[in-house]
Amino acid sequence: MGLKNKDLLGLRNITCEEIMSVLETAKVMKKVLESNNKKTPHLQGKSIVTLFYENSTRTRLSFELAAKFMSANASSISASASSVAKGETLIDTGKTIDAMGTDVVIIRHPMSGAPHLLAQNIKACVINAGDGMNEHPTQALLDMYTMWEKKKDLSKLKVAIIGDILHSRVARSNIWGLAKMGADVSVFAPPTLMPKDIGDVGARVCKKIEDALDCADVVMGLRIQMERQKKGLFPSTKEYASYFGINGSLLKLAKDDCLLMHPGPVNRGLELTTQVIDGENSVINEQVTNGVAVRMALLYLLTRREHV
Amino acid sequence: MKDKIIIKNGFVVDPKSSRQGYFDIVIIDDKICEVIQKDNKYNCISSYDCARVIDATGMTVVPGLIDVHCHLRDPGLEYKEDILSGSMSAAKGGFTSVACMPNTKPVADNKTVIEYIKNKAKRIGLVNVYPIGAISKGLEGLELAEIGELKEAGAVAISDDGNPVSNSSLMKKALLYSSYFDMPVISHCEDLSLVEEGVMNEGRMSTILGLKGIPSAAEEIMVARDIILSEYTGVPVHIAHVSTRLSVELIRKAKQRGVQVTAETCPHYFSITDEACDNFNTNAKVNPPLRTQDDIEAIIEGLSDGTIDIIATDHAPHHIDEKNVEFNMALNGISGFETAVGLCVTNLIKSQRIDMADLICKMSVNPARLLKLPGKGCLDAGYDADVTIIDLNSEYRVDSSKFYSKGKNTPFNNFLLYGEVKYTIVGGKIIVDGGNVICSLTN
Asked: Would residue B442 count as lying in a domain?
């Protein structure tokens, strides 16, 4: 058990056994998080660098706390503050970080595949913290952890993912991971925000939002970015909210005890109504807690791997 | 004393003279002197003692291949390729003549650049290099380039390749104006408003990789537009690098109703699909993008029924630093000279989709006709002594590190292909001998 590869780049190329081993390790880590003394020695002497080419609050903080709770040295680089602004290539930046004795590089990048390029060119482990529209594997793992903790058997779940599927790396990673675990994944988006042929990769494409929500165990809303409206993918936020947003009455189509999830940050009143965000089905804040546990688990498994 | 070459025992495929069979070919100086039944007596020379004899036993002898679409990057981008390395690469690939696109630095939109290319190519003297001039000044799609002067300087066609002529009115004017100078117009068909920031074919694979897709409609809409403009003006148009099923169908229908449209495709469009982009493989990033298996099927149908007239390489060499980057940042293009024959033989001939005579039409006869190159595309007596000799049964593994081209950017590295070019003869000079480029620069 553990992780087979040096890097965690996505859930497309990972096995069910590896996913379960992350979830089970995260369960132990969550106990540490909930204890009075949030410190373990597992990453003592390890150097962890977050390399973020996009803005992030929760993912970056989540990784940094995870590293620090486990006694690692955590440093962070922001694209604007680094030599990237001077025109250095990603590979050269990566090699520089590598040469300073870094064990794990956590990268977020606006271009799909950037973490893969980095991983091929450096010795350190690479964790993908979101690349373009491709994957956000640690988010999907924390989502799956939340479902697993609450609902136990992932293979019996009906999961509805609603929103901007086209641009969503969270949706892609969840589809790969959940489909692999045997869950029934439905997706719904306005037709301009639905990627071509997504039905071929493990998700059931729904034409109506009601079909996706029907009897769902998990309802996942996705963040809609304002720039999509400017690109003409939908006419206005008002229209988006009224036809494609999730409100209280739509949520009633799902199971009574369904989990309402969102990767954050939420646009209140756009993809979800405030009533839904703060409602009793919402596990949005628990997702954030679980994010730290899952990232502790990943750092532990990846760095332990080196010593095997 | 005159230079003589005798090609013996080869299987000649020469569709223009309708010759197909075992013939010996006698070359004196830069012309083909005689083509006679194998082992018959030569008329034009008394003996072949004084001649270089090439034993082509087991090989196929064809008129020199002509590439109507390549990028030699010279002037200005010599770090990617120059006329010398590009000429060697072309010769190694069996091409005796190549037409290079004008997107150099500066752009070949004026007679000075055209003359520079012609003079440098002549000085190097390996393969015939025919420059293609720009349709619009600076390839900007705003004003026509000086097409008359381009023609006079030696350009054989005009194209804004790399960019579409987005403005339909300018395209109409380009067709009308160029017709006065009898200059073929080669159109790069791409509706940029549909492409947006797309970097690969829109479909299952772009969805999987989370890369912005380019819809096939972006090509097809412009193919339809150019067909309509050609029909309206009565001026021929040549469609570059056709990659989709609907493009093929639009061209087929247009030809049926008599529109003077011709079309080319490239080996990569009938050899691999967008699956090659998996793992963010930038060597499979090309424009138009690699499409689907269904498109491959349509391209091959189009080649076999004559809808697609020409196979061109779109040889587009790049420096490794331009490919070893994020997929979005990588430049489009495949270094294509040295894999073209192998891909055609493997995917069209060995699979029996088209026959050898058809292939030679698409790689020599029709290119000579499109670019109006007198003396090319045929092995009959009196034609230029441009000859390619291919061993169709020799299987080899592609090794991009051994490319003569500076561009090692190919998605076909390590592919096993049939059809190795053994000899390339240009104007009676052996440039490729036994598979190796003999690079003796004249002067």
From this structure: no
